Amino acid sequence: MWKELAKHAGGVALAWVVVLVGTFFMLQLYSRPSAQREIPDLSGMARRDALDTLGKLGLEGVWQDSIYLPSGMPGAVVEQHPPSGSAVKVGRSILLTTHRITPPDEAVSYQEGQDAKLVERILTTRGFRVAMAEEPNQLLMGKVIRLEHRGNVLDSETRLPKGSDLVLVVGVLGSDEARVPWLSGLSLQDAAAVLSRRKLALGHVGYAPRVQTARDSANAVVARQDIVPSETPFVAEGTAVDLYFDIR
Q1: Are 208 and 244 in contact (CB under 8 A)?
Q2: What pLDDT does 30 receive?
């Protein structure tokens, strides 16, 4: 009986020794330098290339986010964590942030008559590329006349991708003279177009008392203008012409 107990106890002790030795060697294997990897610099790499590079080192790349920078290459790695040069265990997850492939949309949010320099700064801060263009307009000197994108006039609610090219049209004092046109009988839209072609500005717009509804306004035509060609044939470019409308 004692022999059997001793034999059994010896077997248990041997098993424990095997377990302890195995654990010791496993810990040694896991903690030894060969189980560590130095993280390379992944910045500028395409996302797929960065994942492949990490995979060859026994590390796992995990994409976590994307950001937009005008100068960044779409889809390329811009940030990583832990940073390059860090020593980590094999199997460690490396978090990657890349540049957005598609830039986000941003509202232009401008108003006619705003200070042009202020609007330029706001639009540039929002990620747009802004070019300035001048148009004779004494009424809006140094102010915004309109904002254009690819030849189209934008309203204040328009949203465009960051990085879009915009043209900010600003009023300036004209250096030349412009011939004053007769505008009698023209609609507001046609009169504004004629003034624009002559490099003149549309000034105050007034209506006769009987012009009361939207339909009346649409049918109203120029009945009077404050600068008439018979009295003042030429004015400086950008001069504003006030118009008074009535129903035919």
Answers
A1: yes
A2: 47
